[in-house]
Structures
1.
Amino acid sequence: MAVQTTQKVTASIPKFYDKTLLELLRHKMKMHLKFAQKRPMPRNAGDTISFRKIVKLEPALTPLTEGVTPDGNSIGMTEITAQTEQYGDYILFSDKVQFVTIDPIVLEYITELADQANETLDILAREALNSGTNVMYAGGKTSRDDLASGDVLTVTDVRKVVRFFRKNYVKPVANGDYACLISPDTEFDFFDDEQFRQVADYGGNVKPLLDNEVGRFHNVRFFMTPNAKVFEGAGSGGEDVHAAIFLGKNAYGITNIQGEGDVESIIKDLGSAGTEDPLNQRSSAGWKVNAFGTVRLEELALVRYEHVPSV
């Protein structure tokens, strides 16, 4: 159904709305995409992209013999393929609205479209990350359905994740630190822990803060996202189980079309549909992603920590 408004507007602003949508899309945060490798695909290159991962060389512990050329080593490489898909949506406006002056009602809907586009891409990336193979459960539990009230994120478990990364040669992802994406409820609990260094307690020697960063502890920077994964009613007593995603360098990658960025904004003014709209009754605003995919590249650089916040 078309959205209607009685406010009269005057003539010529598709470019304004188009620019507005692009700016909103550019600046809204997509936290689950923030630490990804970004790989643009050439136009007309199909719907799949391959990531190549070099296999770690083992230490060369055998002494060299004088005058004898050793056998040497060979390059090991793993190819990981990502499938891309198109995504998009739009809103129809009736002829009561013309894209002619800056109509605040239209602008509100364009803002909503930008939020929708960002949330769509964020959730798509989130689902890929939450399918990783490395899982840790709070409170020493061994499965999701064993988790219960009180099994919160602790600083001890944060240290265990960092130990796991370091033992597996996982490099930090942001300014010498690893990253962790947490829900607002997890953030609320963690701020009660005296060992957790809150942003306010960083002092004068802090590294530059990153967008949505809420604190740092033991070489992990924590970022709040309202789109954090929640397994509703999955705990032993029907509690909601939250997932905190710990990330190292090159844990995952995302794709887009080369030269287009993540999202294309599409504005259609009255009369642009030709015979499909013979009375010039419809205009529209929308967005489209021509090719988007998320792929996990290094499972050792990704840990899903499942827990039950106290609130």
2.
Amino acid sequence: VGTITQPTCALATGSVVLSGLPASGTWTLTRTPGGTTTTGTGTSTTISGLAAGTYTYTVTNASGCVSPSSGNVVIDAQPATPTAPVVGTITQPTCALATGSVVLSGLPASGTWTLTRTPGGTTTTGTGTSTTMSGLAPGTYTYTVTNASGCVSPASGNVVIDAQPATP
């Protein structure tokens, strides 16, 4: 058992590099559980498309001899993609303050997250399920949240900040 690649936010399955395979002739790998077989040549191969679980492999050489089982190949579950931030109370600019703010909730409950504002790409890092984004110039914004696993949410609803009211 060589390098194990775990599932990512974008790919639900993992893979493993198996080496020490017979150098001559065609071999057949058998996965346990499931009995899935792969046939090939060469001293190493990459098995991909592995769902979360624990697997072992045996190899059968061209003569029909079967190896002992490999060590365990443990594939973790795919990391969860966070939900879009929920737009809460929007505070508009006032005569005394030229910028607005918005409360965003529905953020990941565990680990550190990063909010990214569009347009502009401004990022804010924090923890907890809600936060207030302040200092927003007039405009329309959306937010995505990246969780501790690096998975990015869909965009929030629009946050519309109006222009500062005119001072008489």
3.
Amino acid sequence: MRPNRHGLLGRIPEPWRRYSGDVTVDADGNVLYFGAQLSEEEEKYAVLACDLTTGETRTVVEVDFKVGHFQANPVRAGALMFCWETGGDAPQRTWFVKGDGSGLKPLYKETYDEWVTHEVWWGPDHIIFTIWPYDENMRAKPHGIAEASTATGPDGAMAILAQYPAWHTHGSPDRKWALGDDFDRNIWLVNVAARERKLLTQGHNAGEYKTHPHGTFTPDSRGLVFTSSRDKVENVLYVPLPEWER
């Protein structure tokens, strides 16, 4: 289906309009992935794909939990990460499936007492995420900004890059840096090789808005963009990495 003058690429059939989560576009730009609840009476959900050339929508996979946080691999087409969405601590947060519906599996297989959240692809074969220390017991265990290899499977080793109560995180394309915000709306920069954490910018919580910075590195790995309510309005800001960090 060619886009018309209004930009229409396809129509979602009625049974799939109970949307769940957000949308993401495949690395080759040909497929849009999203989720839906299949029945109002049952906990049955599906990951769906819309072909952006033909407009055809198809089922990728059905699961028995609420789906969300869809992220197509930014490098490898046909590779999709999504989450078990609970609004809190899921029994198994991160999931992977191929675009053809095969290969459904946990990406990082968490233990029963880990609160994994805010996972992001970090190149073709790694993810970066946070393990939230929700009580004093968990603060005594490994937590904070973590990474795991998807090439080694769900039981592969997890590494903590910075141990502190991090919330959102992201990794630079050159794999030298990681970042994480916190509930005080500060952004921390992490030297991955040295496992060193430094405060990059702070004070992004002001006025009626409680904006999460949710930082993202630029493609050249030389700066990051983030949201801020520092000036008592919602803004998108950019900060370069300090010269001594490049």
